[in-house]
Amino acid sequence: MKAFLLLPQRTASSGIRRFSVSVQAYRDKNIAIVGGGAAGFYTAARLLAKTQDVNIDIFEQLPTPYGLVRFGVAPDHPEVKNCTTKFDQVSGSPRVRYFGNIQVGRQLALEKLRSAYDGVVLSYGASEDRKLGIPGEDGVDGKWGVVPARQFVAWYNGLPEAQGLDVDLKSFDRVVIVGHGNVALDCARILLTEPSELASTDITAHALETLRGSNVRHVEMVGRRGPLQVAFTTKELREMTKIPALDFICDRDLVASECAKWAEWLDASRSLKRMMDLLTKHAVSAGHSGRKSFTLSFLKSPVEVVPDQAAPQRIRFQINRLEGPVDAARAVGTGEFVDVPCGLILRSIGYASTPLDGAPFDGRRKIIPNIAGRATDNGELVPGLYAAGWVKRGPVGVIATTMQDAYRTADAVIMDLVHSQGQPREAIDQMLSESGVLSSCVTNAQWKRLEAFEAEAGQLTGKPREKVTNIEQMLNIVK
Ligand code: FAD
Fold first, then answer.
1. What enzyme class is recorded for this protein (predicted)?
2. How does residue 14 score in pLDDT terms, banded at 50, 70 and 90?
3. Is 297 within 8 Å of 174 (Cβ atoms)?
């Protein structure tokens, strides 16, 4: 076995020192990855590229791989899903095994993985979301209330567990989305786009049918702070301006006054300046009657959801003002309130990871505590345990960020392999066999069968794929 080499490099542009791991030759080293999303696959890709013969087993709770790339990224953003070509190269490697339909913590204990493998990378993402914590959020008698945008996204993207969501888009014409991030914009765009435009995407047949029958005409997206504090990006906002026959409404006076107040600061932020220009150019202060509308509302915090006689419900907001510097502005309630009658209310204020039995967890930050990807427990390194992706750094960042972050974790794994003490491959396979993993998993070859089935079904209606949305059906197809 060669000793690892850590090469410091000075980048031409920044002059910052980075470290790169040269290709290593290890014998009989095995890494387990928990979660087959972007972080899991990019970690595996880096391990493949930077070692000669380390084996990688990916455990994914669903039969299907790719995580949020399949179940989060909007169906009308197909180019974003091109990263799956890279993931397929990874799972096609003879050094990689894909074990789909295996939930670590349920079918297979983390302890078993840790005692068998040289390293275990936790990349299991963020499967919960943050609540608003206001009265009425859970509805009355289980009806109405606030629906997590996470579930709505999962519903139109075909995540099996979200297919039971009762999405009523018929009995009202107004939707309120709480949150000013890209996920909120995805939801608004899907609700306001002509369904015929979505018909050639991989949105599920059921969601498309529901959207075809939708009476939703107005979507209001509400944030507690101002235009200079939004979390979405210009590209996604620009898409809203391109929806035909849609009034894009926002308080242009507020945008103008905030831009004037912080002009110097804004000059240094090109992307935010572009976004403010976009708002100024495309937004109107009030809608044309009869047209669909998208309203971007600022300076409002939700305080309560109450039933309503005419609309199904109303959401009450407190009006805020901003205090403090522009880049750390705080929303402070003014004591004035406004009610918005609506049907569906979506909350889109962030995803959250959950603890996994046997792994340390920071309950406040809702991540696996770690130092550059190495898991820690009460400040001490946990040997052989790593984190990557959203469970490592929190639910922020696009796929490119997740890739960079997964590469850093993989580099830490490679450095530590010198000292690792996993079991040989035969012992691992025996453990997997005894745990029932080998008999109940969906292999990569089986996933490819399911993928081909979905592609064939999609061809019939001019879609890239028609996703199978039921686990039992998936398992029958791959049998
Ligand atoms: P995930 O993709 O969530 O993967 C985690 C995987 O772990 C999942 O497959 C899950 O099933 C599995 N898992 C969970 N628990 C277990 C367990 N116990 N055992 C085994 N497996 C388990 N980025 C872009 O660049 N462009 C976009 O347009 C874009 N759109 C987005 C839209 C939405 C709605 C969301 C939420 C995110 C979007 N992102 C986008 C961000 C991107 O999806 C994330 O950066 C990335 O997916 C995070 O990867 P991850 O592997 O950490 O998590």
1. oxidoreductase
2. very low
3. no
Q: What is the pTM of this model?
A: 0.93
- The reply to whether ligand 1 has any atom less than 6 angstroms from the CB of 104 is yes
Q: Where are the beta strands (DSSP E) in 198-278?
A: 218-222, 246-250
What is the C-alpha separation between 38 and 125, in angstroms, rounded? 9
Among 222, 469, 467, 199, smallest CA distance to 342 is for: 222
Q: Kindly tell me if the per-residue pLDDT of 365 is higher than 50.
A: yes
CA of 183 to the centre of ligand 1 (A): 13
Q: CB-based contacts of 372: which residues, under 8 Å, 6+ apart? A: 408, 409, 412
Enumerate long-range contacts of 436-440, CB under 8 Å, 24 or more apart. Answer: 436/107, 437/59, 437/99, 437/102, 437/107, 437/108, 440/101, 440/102, 440/107
State which amino acid sits at residue 29: K
Ligand 1 close to Cβ of residue 62 (< 6 A): yes
Centre of ligand 1 to C-alpha 368, Å, is 16
Q: How far is CA 318 from the centre of its chain?
A: 29
> With 0-12 CB in 10 A as exposed, 13-18 as middle and 19+ as buried, what is 246?
buried
